[in-house]
Design goal:
Layout lengths: L2 H7 L7 E10 L5 E9 L5 E8 L29 H5 L4 E6 L15 H15 L4 E7 L4 H10 L6 E3 L10 H5 E2 L2 E2 L1 H7 L18 H12 L2 H4 L2 H8 L5 H8 L5 H4 L14 E6 L7 H10 L4 E6 L15 H12 L12 E5 L4 E5 L8 E8 L3 E3 L7 E6 L12 E5 L7 E15 L5 E9 L5 E10 L31 E14 L4 E7 L20 E6 L6 E7 L2
Parallel strand pairs: 3-4, 3-5, 5-6, 9-10, 10-11
Antiparallel strand pairs: 1-2, 2-4, 7-8, 11-12, 13-14, 13-23, 15-22, 16-21, 17-20, 17-22, 17-23, 18-19, 18-21
Helix pairs in contact: 3-4
Length: 558
C-alpha cells in the first residue's frame, strides 16, 4: 500500500471536541483517580485512548507553541499527546493522574503494583462508558509509555493495543543506575516536573525504619556522599527528593527495581504493540525498545527515528501521530491500513538520513567486526603487533564548564561509505591505582574538519563488572549488578561494556572515535550526569597481542 493510499484510508478529521474535566474514576480499593475526558462532540460510541502519568492532567494542553524540553519551563511532562488530533478523527482521549499525583486520591507509589492495577481499573471503567465502544488503547511517551507495558501485563480484557513511544524496560539499568553508576543529574532536576505534592520514599514499602536508618548511616560514610553536600542533604532529609533517596538506598538490582521494570512482565503482554524510540535516547529509552521487541510475543512493530533536539521531541508531544493513527485505526477500528503488510522494523540510518525496513534485530547480514585499540591512540581493524598502554587521570573537582579528560582512540579515515547498525560492545583491559573507578564511553563520527556527532554511549562502574553469563551475548554484555567486587590496585582486569545500539553511515574521509573518560561534567552532558569516582584515579588502558582490547561493531555490508 503506497503512502498516499494509506493516508486516504485512515480516519479523517470530522468531529469537534468537547472537554469534561475532573471526572473521578473508582478503583478496586476505593481510591479515586482524577481524569479529564476529551470526547467527540457527537452521538455514538468510539474507541478510547488512555494517557496516564504523574505529571498532571492540567498541564498537558497549555496554550502556546511547541518548544524543546526545558527544566526552566518545566515542560518535560507534556507527553500525553495531541488530544484534538485523535478526537476529531473519532477517538475518545482520557488523561488520568496516577494515584497520589495531580487531583487523584491516595499515595503516590511510582509505577508500583497499585499504580499498575489502577491502570487495569481505568481501562475497564472506560470500556463501560456510554461514549466508548469497548475498544481501548493506551497513548503517550516516556512515563506515559513505560506504564503501558505494566498495565498491559495486567491483561485488562478491553485493552486491545499499546504504543510505548520512548519507553524504558529496566528501571535499574536504563534509568537509575547506568552500568552501576547512579544517574544523579536527571533525578536531581526531574522531581520538579511532577504533580506530586508529597510522598513517602519508596523504601518504606520494603524496609523497616531500623534498616533504612542503618543504610543511611552506612551511605553517609561513603566517599561519594562525604564529598557531595547535595547527596548528604538528600539522605538526611528524605522528603527533599524521596525518589533519589530511595535510589540511593538501593544501589544494586533486585526485587525493588523488578516490580517497576517492564522487562520482567513482557511475557504477559499478549496484545499488539507499536514500539518507537530515537537513536539519541541512549541514557534512558533506547535499549528498552529493543528489549521489548525481543520479549513481546504478539503482533508488533519497531520504529527507530531521531528528533531535532537531543533532549527528545518538542513539548507538548505531537510527533508521529499520523503513524500512530494508522496503527490505532488498524487495531481499534478494524480499518485495513496496510500497516501489518509491511516489514516489522523501520530504521532511520543516520549519516545518510535515509529510512528503510528490516525484518529482524540484530540484522541477519551483520558482519561482526573488531576494531582494536592500539598505539598512538589508534583504532584499527587489524590487531596491533606490540603491547602498549594509554593513561589518563580523572579530576572529581573539575568545574562544570570544563570537559573531563580522557583518552580518544580514532580510526583512519574511511575510504568508502561504511554502515554500522546494531548493538555495540567494548572489551578492554585496564588497571587502576585504586579499588574502583568509573568508565564513561562515547562513540563519535568525526568529520574531516574535526566536527563530530555523538553516536551512542556506554557506562560501567569497575566494581560492577560481573557478568550474567546466561543473558550475555558477545554484542551485548549483561551485568548482574548484585554486589561490588573491589579491584586490587595495579591489577589488570578485563571489562565488557554494553554500548547502546546505534545506526550510522561513515562517509569517506570520516573517522570513528572511541572516547574513554572517568567522569562527566555539564560540558559532556547537561542532564545525564552520574555519581562517578570521587577520587583522583589513574586509569591505564592496556592493548596489544597480550591485551586484545577492542570494539565489537555491527558492520552492514552494501
Amino acid at each position: 500500500m503506497t503512502t498516499d493510499t494509506w493516508r486516504s484510508k485512515v480516519s479523517q478529521p470530522q468531529y469537534k471536541m468537547k472537554i469534561v474535566r475532573d471526572v473521578m474514576i473508582p478503583t478496586r480499593d476505593g481510591t479515586r483517580i482524577a481524569c479529564d475526558l476529551y470526547l467527540p462532540e457527537a452521538a455514538g460510541r468510539f474507541p478510547a485512548l488512555l494517557s496516564y502519568s504523574l505529571y498532571g492532567k492540567d498541564v498537558q494542553h497549555f496554550v502556546g507553541g511547541r518548544a524543546p524540553l526545558s527544566p526552566l519551563k518545566g515542560n518535560g511532562g507534556q507527553e500525553a499527546g495531541d488530544s484534538e488530533y485523535f478526537v476529531t478523527r473519532g477517538y475518545a482521549h482520557v488523561i488520568a493522574d496516577a494515584r497520589g499525583a495531580g487531583d487523584s486520591e491516595g499515595v503516590f507509589c511510582y509505577q508500583g503494583v497499585k499504580e499498575q492495577e489502577d491502570g487495569y481499573d481505568i481501562i475497564e471503567w472506560m470500556a463501560q462508558q456510554p461514549w466508548c465502544d469497548g475498544n481501548c488503547g493506551m497513548f503517550g511517551m516516556s512515563y506515559f509509555a513505560v506504564i503501558q507495558y505494566m498495565v498491559a501485563a495486567q491483561q485488562p480484557p478491553h485493552l486491545k493495543t499499546i504504543v510505548p513511544y520512548e519507553a524504558l524496560t529496566d528501571r535499574y539499568r536504563q534509568s537509575t543506575y547506568h552500568g552501576g553508576l547512579m544517574n544523579v543529574g536527571f533525578w536531581e532536576q526531574w522531581w520538579g516536573h511532577t504533580s506530586v505534592g508529597k510522598m513517602p520514599p519508596l523504601s518504606h514499602e520494603d524496609l523497616s525504619e531500623e534498616e533504612i536508618k542503618r543504610r543511611v548511616a552506612a551511605l553517609m560514610e561513603t566517599p561519594e556522599v562525604r564529598s557531595s553536600p547535595f547527596l548528604h542533604l538528600t539522605l538526611k532529609h528524605r522528603e527533599k527528593n524521596p525518589l533519589l533517596f530511595s535510589w540511593m538506598l538501593e544501589p544494586f538490582d533486585g526485587p525493588f527495581y523488578w516490580k517497576r521494570s517492564p522487562y520482567r512482565m513482557l511475557d504477559r503482554i499478549k496484545i499488539p504493540t507499536f514500539l518507537a524510540t530515537r537513536w539519541s535516547s541512549w541514557p534512558v529509552h533506547l535499549a528498552g525498545a529493543f528489549e521489548a521487541y525481543e520479549g513481546i510475543n504478539a503482533p508488533k512493530k519497531l520504529m527507530l527515528m531521531e528528533t531535532e533536539s537531543l533532549l527528545g521531541p518538542l513539548r507538548p508531544w505531537a510527533d508521529h501521530h499520523d503513524l500512530l493513527l494508522r496503527w490505532y485505526d488498524h487495531w481499534l477500528k478494524g480499518i485495513d491500513t496496510g500497516y501489518m503488510d509491511e516489514p516489522p522494523i523501520h530504521l532511520l540510518i543516520k549519516g545518510k538520513n535515509i529510512s528503510r525496513h528490516e525484518n529482524e534485530w540484530p540484522l541477519a547480514r551483520t558482519r561482526w567486526t573488531k576494531a582494536f585499540l592500539g598505539p598512538g591512540e589508534s583504532l584499527g581493524f587489524t590487531p596491533p603487533v606490540q603491547d602498549g598502554v594509554a593513561t589518563f587521570q580523572n579530576d572529581p573537582d573539575l568545574p562544570l564548564h570544563r570537559a573531563a579528560t580522557g583518552v580518544v582512540f580514532s580510526s583512519v579515515p574511511f575510504d568508502i561509505e561504511t554502515e554500522v547498525t546494531g548493538p555495540v560492545a567494548l572489551y578492554f583491559y585496564a588497571s587502576l591505582d585504586r579499588d574502583d573507578a568509573s568508565w564513561i564511553i562515547t562513540l563519535r563520527d568525526v568529520a574531516p574538519d574535526g566536527s563530530y556527532r555523538v553516536l551512542t554511549k556506554g557506562w560501567q562502574r569497575a566494581s560492577h563488572r560481573e557478568l550474567d553469563q546466561e543473558k550475555t551475548r558477545p554484542y551485548r554484555p549483561y551485568h548482574r549488578h548484585l554486589r561490588k567486587d573491589a579491584i586490587a590496585a595495579g591489577e589488570i582486569v578485563e571489562y565488557a561494556v554494553e554500548i547502546r545500539e546505534t545506526s550510522n553511515v561513515f562517509k569517506p574521509g570520516h573517522r570513528l572515535a572511541l572516547e574513554i573518560k572517568g567522569q562527566e561534567t555539564a560540558v559532556d552532558d547537561p542532564m545525564w550526569i552520574h555519581v562517578c569516582n570521587p577520587y583522583k584515579t589513574v586509569h591505564t588502558i592496556h592493548f596489544g597481542p597480550k591485551w586484545p582490547s577492542h570494539l565489537l561493531l555491527p558492520v552492514i555490508p552494501d
